[in-house]
Amino acid sequence: MQGKGLITLVAVILGLICLNELLPTWYASKIEKQATELAGNNPEKYQREIARLSKDTLNLGFTELYYSKSKEKEMKLGLDLKGGINVLLEINQRDLVNNLTNYSTNPVLIEALDRTDQMQKNSTNTYIKDFFTQFDLVNKEKNANLKLADPEIFGNTNLSEIKFNTPDDQVKRIIENRIELSTGTAYEVIRTRIDKMGVTQPNVQRVPRTGRISVEMPGVKDIDRVKKMLQTSAKLQFWEVQQVQEVLPYFEQLSAVVAAKGDSLGVAKNTNFTNLLQLNTLKSNGVANVKLSDTAAVNKILNSKIAKDLRPQNIKYTQFMWGYKPEVNDANNLVLYAVRGNISQKAPVDGAVESARINYDDLGRIVVDMQMDSKGSKDWKTLTGKNINKPVAVTLDNVVYTAPNVVNEIPNGRTQISGSFSQEEAQDLVNVLGAGKLPAGAKIVQAEVVGPSLGAESVDAGMYSFIIAFVIIILYMLFYYGGAGIYAIIAITFNLFYLMGIMDSVDATLTLPGIAGIVLSMAMSIDANVIVYERTKEELFAGKNIREAYNEGFNFSLSAIIDGNITSLLTAVVLYIFGTGPIQGFAVTLGIGIILSMFTCVLLTRVLIFSRLEKGKGLSVWTKLSKNIFRNTWIDFIGKRKYAYILSGIITLVCLISIATQGFKYGVDFKGGRSYVVRFADPVVANEAANSLEKQFINKEGQQNAVDVKTFGSSNQLKITTDYRVDEESLEADQDVESKLFAGLKPYLPADAQLSNFKDSGANNYGVVSSVKVGPTVADDIKSGGFIAMIVALAGIFLYILIRFKRWQFSTGAIASLVHDAIVILGVYSLLKNVMPFNMEINQDFIAAILTVLGYSINDTVIIFDRIREYLNEKKSLTLEGLFNDSISSTLGRTFNTAFMTFLVILAIFIFGGENLRGFMFALLIGVGFGTYSTWFIASAVSYDLLKKKGVEGAKKSLVTEKPEPTPEV
């Protein structure tokens, strides 16, 4: 055959490249396995064994392997396989705007920013786009006639490129570009911080035009430390401190208000504010010494509108800030400071740090020494000179680390931060300061945490499902296609090897959905061989010899294979563009698998088969049991279409009624909130746990927040979802939710259970094994992204079918069947949301499942349409109805075999792939079944009815296209 040498050369070169890419993963795993066998469960001994074994090298002639380099180059595992944390950081764009306006206090600007903050809670636009909209509205309402280039808005020294006459449209472009540049700066700072932590294989990516940064750190265990490190802006500032005498009259007045109107401030009506402040225990330059358990109540009071309106002139702009941590000799209290602010809330000293290092003071306590830059040094000299014998607060991200009295003016920018640091805390602070400050504050708007034990279980589940699926494919191909099946198995094996090697070479991350994508791509890639073999069987039954039959089998199948793979690839591309995290991993593996199948299952298989045939050897394409299956099978599909319309109409109506009346059960990524998977030593009844938790999750109005508790996988595991403090993305809010979760579940935990152990199940047999947090803004983005992905996928498929088959009737029939499939899957999830013993939530995974089904279903449809096009030239005497029936019936073997194998493979993942994949795979199971049905009875039937309106001969004439004769074998 033509091109045999080139195909063989490409296969060999590709194989060597993939082998070279995968060897480091194999070697690193080998060393770690040896270290585990020698060290057992002793982590310290394990590290010593790794250090010893890593000195060894393995020389393979063409390459030399050693552990440290292999570890750097090994295949990346996602956090769902390795444990760790994945977060979506959002840079505070209000801070960026304030900085770009040089902290202007223009009332139009302030009101526009306030409105934008409110609008963002339910908006899918970027912050800056909503700000421009609100600025125009406020400007018009107040008849201010301000231009964006006004000196009080963006026309200041911070933005030299903006002149007094710069048009608003140009200013908008400049501001958007500056914000994008600021996000780039934030990305570099975050990346540097992570590198300083020594995290292995972190994945840090910018999300373009959103002000967001995606960070994935597999293997990380100290989650709170990581969250704090990521959100710290390193905004080191120095402020004057107000003493208790200055604020005491205000506190006394506020105390009376709290006693009378406490419920309107978010606290109990009889709250004694003075007692909360514990003024008689003050030992520092603070204005209150508050119990840790009372800090939330004090925050609510001081931040309430009533309290702010009550402020006298001398503390109108005062900022109340908490100390970094409790003092050593007072572990249960936290100091509250009154920092002297101003109308712009710009600190007197806001200097960048040139260097920072750990040191020790005269008493041997850990401190952080630092050197300011030139501007900071100058401002620091002025501030200390003005405040000799007065306190000055050193703050980092609005938390007071220290507030000592100034003894002398400090002229050289050197200063010291103390705060009862541990060695680790001091090192983190040095790392953060050394990496530079973020251009604005950052908050975690989405987070996913997976414990190491769940990651290990996911690896096992993924491997089990992979092995079982592979065995199913091997057995079925050998049973149905005999000797030819062996070559299909060889092609799939190469396909898997190349797929893993390519993923490693492009630095893709392997996730649990990615493993599912690999397994599913195996089933879908075998479709190419099934199409070829079924066509070869037809040619053999027509009397062709074995070589002619295979030659025409490959030639006539190529068009159908290309069409089917391109439509499936379209959905993979849409999934990658609109998906996030694990869903992108699924899309990558599925997409690469589909592309590789064109090479391995068509070209490489052809080379192998014809190499055998050229030696005069035969190659069966059936077995005795399978030879006559579907042979001469003819079904009047078009004649039965009205019955199918009635059945589909009833099913669709039931689904639509359920969707309209019962709705769906949305996951946290579609509605916002926090979700936890908690494991217990013994079985727990979900309803009882829910009753206990509802008593904990009570909001500031005294109302219970929604808590959804379901058994997850096994009877000793619960999935708990709550919208408590859903609008708050701070670390403090996360910790509050976790502490309430622990308190509510404590009756079901061991007597000696501690919060720290509960938050990290680790070596315990109880605790949080995974968690997800999604802010409402991100949830809106995910929902809109999912809807757009569906529309884009359907539009792309419609256009491709239209271009490929040149008839809108085919495109309409194909889309009708896909919409039918989507409605059925949605309806089933609505009907069974409270019935099934596994997750039936509508979330990102579900959208991925629907898009995958669309790709699979259209693949089937394209095969039939391709056969209709072929039969137009070969069977001109047939009626239009006969043409459709013959085309569908002649492809029954291919459709059934592909559907049956795909169904079995998905069933294997559904049963053995772990609880996290069960809902996803259930949608695929429904989709494969109804997708096959809709291909026969919806796509083909609708296309037939639309074409029939032209009349039989008119329809057939309009379908005729020039089709080249198959290329003869050379």
UniProtKB/TrEMBL annotation:
Domain Protein export membrane protein SecD/SecF C-terminal intervals: 442-608, 762-948
Transmembrane segments: 461-479, 486-503, 515-533, 554-579, 585-609, 643-664, 785-803, 810-831, 846-865, 896-914, 920-947
Pfam name, any one: SecD_SecF_C
Protein's membrane topology: Multi-pass membrane protein
Species the sequence originates in: Kaistella pullorum
Compartments, as annotated in UniProt: Cell membrane
Main location: membrane
Family statement: Belongs to the SecD/SecF family. SecD subfamily. Belongs to the SecD/SecF family. SecF subfamily.
Domain Protein translocase subunit SecDF P1 per the UniProt entry, residue ranges: 186-242
SecDF P1 head subdomain domain location: 352-440
UniProt KW Cytoplasm keyword: no
Name of this protein: Multifunctional fusion protein
Record's function text: Part of the Sec protein translocase complex. Interacts with the SecYEG preprotein conducting channel. SecDF uses the proton motive force (PMF) to complete protein translocation after the ATP-dependent function of SecA.
Entry keywords, A to Z: Cell membrane, Membrane, Protein transport, Translocation, Transmembrane, Transmembrane helix, Transport
Quaternary structure and partners: Forms a complex with SecF. Part of the essential Sec protein translocation apparatus which comprises SecA, SecYEG and auxiliary proteins SecDF. Other proteins may also be involved. Forms a complex with SecD. Part of the essential Sec protein translocation apparatus which comprises SecA, SecYEG and auxiliary proteins SecDF. Other proteins may also be involved.
SUPFAM superfamilies: Multidrug efflux transporter AcrB transmembrane domain (SSF82866)
HAMAP family for the chain: SecD_B (MF_01463_B), SecF_B (MF_01464_B)
